[in-house]
Write a structure and sequence with these properties.
Elements lengths: L25 H31 L23 E6 L4 H16 L8 E6 L5 H15 L5 H8 L2 E5 L8 H9 L5 E6 L6 H10 L7 E5 L7 H14 L5 E3 L7 H11 L13 E9 L8 H7 L1 H18 L8 H14 L8 H4 E7 L1 E3 L2 E3 L2 H5 L9 E7 L9 E7 L6 E8 L18 E7 L3 E9 L8 E9 H5 L6 H11 L8 H21 L4 E4 L6 H8 L11
Parallel strand pairs: 1-2, 1-4, 2-3, 4-5, 5-6, 7-12, 8-17
Antiparallel strand pairs: 7-13, 8-11, 9-10, 11-12, 13-14, 14-15, 15-16
Helix pairs in contact: 2-3, 2-15, 6-7, 7-16, 10-11, 10-16, 11-16
Bound molecules: NADP nicotinamide-adenine-dinucleotide phosphate (NAP).
NADP nicotinamide-adenine-dinucleotide phosphate (NAP) binds next to helix 2.
Length: 559
């Protein structure tokens, strides 16, 4: 059903949104919905004004598609309390609070809910609301002031140092005024604070059955430190209350992989080593480390990207069909993939992995400094680029390489999965018809989320039979006429609903570290430094050699 703007709805397909059965005040809720609807109509008018102007006067450029504010099908969740530890930090300001605002204007968050920022900075509620107002206005197009004002009424702040006792009595008393609310504690702080925060929450009895704790990455820097965090958090929260977030799993395209693979008869029979030649997963950034240098230098590309995001993507591509979409059914299948990854260690790391570190170069036509200059250090052995060849040792995937690569200061910002099918066994076409290229499925996470299936067709018109390799293109913005909701919008409400399907279970994190740890140890033991690459290029030449040795190339579909 189209929404009020005549566009397809932004429904959370597959989510566990149930009609809310606990509206104590039906009339009150309806009038809230009517108010939201009125506000949203104004918002929608503001949104469509440039489009109408374009139709009227074709000299004006087509405006960038933006989301439509209203969706009647987005069902509200129960009122909840969400506490963001690190509520003044970059992640909260740039991502979490705008995501909550979007869900609010979509009618999913009821006004009895509370959003409480926590950090050491001495702010009062109004001071924090000013920060949140600026955050939302900076991130959302066409904010309607009245709607933002009503959103901000739910927002409050408590100054707390996670490591000190002051202020916790007041904090616990404030939460105690709504004992029945689902309580979400989002730990958007450095992981060193996770244990202190959970101990205090436990000490104040705030870890009851209605409580959930969200852990941001990185969860540890190796298996041992991940176990320390998981053990400590596990002393106060049951595994079912712990939501380890990997925002890549909240991206529409990643969920679409489930729909593509298991909602179509077409792919699954071909989804194996008999028909798939290889898989590439690329997560490329154009930015350098910027202000995150001190964090990044302790992490590096393997810990920051491969151990979590890229392995999760690999799991979504490679897992067996789960019996259902029940959280543990999906996570059990992902775990099997992680446990089937062939070890990379000091015996084969030199052949199967490439590390790089960027030097000064160019980005968007501007000169940019190298990693060491940005860091302000003379030397560092931290990799800002990694490419590797992984293999999954099971019946379905034996012999199919998964080439993974990620890096900073690469030529374009792109995250995508490319599945290349095997070449045809025999060509009936004359060589003059053109090359017969293998089919390819490209699943793009950013930019321009969407799916392309590359097929061979005949070039239209006379002139003999000439072959063309063209994509069946389903870029979501043009296919559905809306921008995709941010991953955090989906994931935050999944926590409130108590749906952990798209979050990592402890055993998944451990299995990922068990595979990544020996690679880090092998690099450490080798004493080698990462290979230099110029900012604005696709990493060191050894990364090209890694795949070309196998007679293949990195695929770069034009965005
Ligand atoms: P950040 O900008 O440095 O923010 C840290 C927050 O924690 C601030 O609000 C800070 O405020 C608060 N804080 C620090 N020490 C505290 C203490 N002792 N007690 C209470 N609050 C304290 O960090 P961030 O970039 O938002 O990242 C937060 C976490 O998310 C990190 O683990 C990061 O790795 C992860 N993450 C971030 C991103 C991102 O895009 N930023 C993406 C993925 C994951 P005060 O200094 O006022 O206390």
């Amino acid at each position: 059903m189209p929404d009020q703007c005549g566009k397809p709805e932004l429904r959370d397909c597959g989510s566990q949104s149930e009609p809310n059965s606990r509206f104590s005040d039906e009339n009150g809720y309806r009038s809230f919905q009517m108010k939201l609807f009125r506000d949203s109509c104004w918002e929608a008018l503001a949104h469509w004004k440039p489009v109408v102007w374009h139709w009227y006067d074709r000299r004006t450029p087509i405006p960038k598609l933006s989301r439509c504010a209203v969706s009647v099908a987005s069902l509200p969740v129960e009122p909840f309390d969400l506490v963001i530890f690190g509520g003044t930090g970059d992640l909260a300001i740039r991502k979490l609070l705008p995501a909550l605002y979007h869900r609010y204007i979509d009618g999913q968050i009821r006004p009895e809910s509370r959003i409480v920022g926590v950090a050491r900075e001495a702010l009062d509620d109004d001071g924090y609301r000013t920060q949140v107002r600026a955050a939302v206005e900076g991130a959302v197009d066409h904010v309607v002031p009245a709607t933002l004002d009503s959103f901000l009424k739910m927002v409050g702040y408590r100054p707390l140092d996670a490591r000190k006792a002051d202020g916790w009595d007041d904090f616990a008393a404030m939460l105690g005024t709504q004992p029945d609310h689902v309580r979400v504690f989002y730990l958007s702080t450095s992981p060193e604070l996770f244990v202190d925060i959970c101990e205090r929450l436990g000490g104040y009895g705030l870890n009851g059955d209605n409580a959930r704790v969200v852990l941001e990455k990185p969860i540890g820097r190796d298996l041992a430190s991940a176990n320390v965090i998981n053990d400590a958090v596990g002393r106060f929260f049951a595994e079912s209350q712990i939501y380890r977030i990997d925002h890549y799993l909240g991206k529409e395209t990643v969920q679409n992989l489930l729909a593509l693979r298991f909602g179509n008869a077409l792919f699954e029979p071909l989804w194996n080593s008999a028909h798939i030649d290889h898989v590439q997963i690329t997560v490329a950034e154009t930015l350098g480390v910027g202000r995150r240098g001190s964090y990044y230098d302790r992490a590096g590309a393997l810990r920051d990207m491969v151990q979590n995001h890229i392995l999760q993507l690999l799991c979504m591509v490679a897992m067996e069909p789960p019996a259902s979409l029940a959280p543990d059914a999906v996570r059990d299948e992902k775990l099997k993939v992680l446990r089937s990854l062939r070890p990379i260690n000091d015996s084969n790391a030199a052949q199967l992995t490439v590390r790089g570190q960027y030097r000064a170069g160019a980005a968007d036509g501007q000169g940019v400094p190298g990693y060491l200059e940005e860091l302000g250090e003379k030397e560092s052995r931290t990799e800002t680029f990694v490419a590797l060849k992984a293999e999954i040792g099971n019946w379905r995937w034996a012999g199919v390489p998964f080439y993974l690569r990620t890096g900073k200061r690469l030529p374009s910002r792109v995250s995508e999965i490319v599945v290349t099918f095997r070449a045809l066994p025999h060509s009936i076409f004359d060589p003059s018809s053109g090359p017969l290229l293998p089919n390819r499925l490209t699943v793009r996470l950013q930019p321009d989320e969407g799916v392309k299936l590359w097929l061979t067709i005949k070039h239209p018109g006379p002139g003999g039979l000439r072959l063309r390799h063209v994509p069946l293109d389903m870029t979501f913005a043009s296919a559905f006429g809306v921008q995709q909701p941010d991953a955090y919008e989906r994931l935050l409400l999944d926590v409130v609903r108590g749906n952990p399907t798209l979050f990592m279970r402890r055993d998944e994190v451990e299995a990922a570290w068990k595979w990544a740890g020996p690679i880090l140890e092998a690099w450490e033991a080798s004493g080698d430094t990462p290979k230099a690459y110029t900012a604005g290029t696709w990493g060191p030449s050894a990364a090209v050699a890694l795949i070309e040795r196998d007679g293949r190339n990195w695929t770069e579909d034009a965005p």
